[in-house]
Model the fold of this input.
Amino acid sequence: MTPRMHLHVLASGSKGNAAVVEGPAGSVLIDCGISRRELLRRADAVGCDMDRVTHVIVTHEHSDHVRGLPVFCNHFDGDVLATAGTAGGSKSLAQVPFTLVTHEQTMALAGMVVSTFPTSHDVADPFGLRFSVVSDDGELEDAIAWCTDTGFLTSEALGQLRGARILGIESNHDEQMLAHGPYPAYLRARVGGDTGHLSNAQAADALPLLVTEDTETVVALHLSEKNNTPGLCVRTLADAMGAAVTTDDDGRPEARTADGLLTICAASQEEPLTIW
Done:
């Protein structure tokens, strides 16, 4: 694929989530779970022009995905897209002027084809996303897939995530760390259940099904600060793809296959990450 889009993960984790997909004719903000000031600061740090954002897409209503949205919308003239379940799922969102979409819909946004697909989380009607750029003759030129906050990968998710050049997939917890960690039993059951979060092992098991010759980067999302580490996460995903673990220029763990065609990395709660 010829890169036509870029991904900026500005925050990923239980304290707040936000990412920007840059397309040929604008950008789309995925979720807004951090303050507007911090969002703009991190975007500036990685050279992401927030003035290009034409749409906001909200995957679900949990506070770590929408906490900063009401203030952001006070300074934003574009459309804010969410399902009816998400739009009505939190009192804090009552004043947000949503444009309603469904969890299986295809839209043209910012020069991209954006498709939603259902995920499995303990909220009203969540979804994941696939962004594509298609040539005038219908050929796929680039694709970015995004899936987080799901207890398992739905059949629709498996189809939409496969073959993206950049695959963003949740890898929330290590199952042993969760089982023996500080969370009470009810929270361990929630996180590890079918409407909770994907584990490292679940994400690793999915990678051979999702990664194709077109996939260049896998970025692990929504890592738990209590029940995971970036090193453990990357190593688990790397083992599934026969990749060797090393570190990037900033000392963060990453892995690459022997042919150099696939890179595996992990997004951070605090430090923004750009994937070209």
Remarks:
- The two ends are 12 Å apart (CA to CA).
- The chain has a mean pLDDT of 97.
- The longest helix spans residues 230-241.
